[in-house]
Amino acid sequence: SRYVVTKAHIDGAPKESDFELKSESISLLLDSGSNDVIVKNLFVSIDPYQLNRMKSQSSSQIYSTLAAAINPGEAIDAYGVAKVLVSGNPEFQKDDLVVGFITWGDYSVIKPGAMLRKLDPMGFPLSHHVGILGFSGLTAYVGFFEVCKPKKGEKVFVSAASGSVGNLVGQYAKLFGCYVVGSAGSTEKVQILKEKLGFDDAFNYKEESDLKATLRRYFPDGIDIYFDNVGAEMQEAAIANMNVFGRVAVCGVISEYTDSGRKATPDMIDIVYRRIKIQGFLVTDFLNVYADFISTTCDHLRAGKMHTLEDISTGVESIPSSLIGLFSGHNIGKKMVQLAYS
Ligand code: NDP
Question: Which SUPFAM superfamilies match (predicted)?
Answer without folding.
Answer: GroES-like (SSF50129), NAD(P)-binding Rossmann-fold domains (SSF51735)
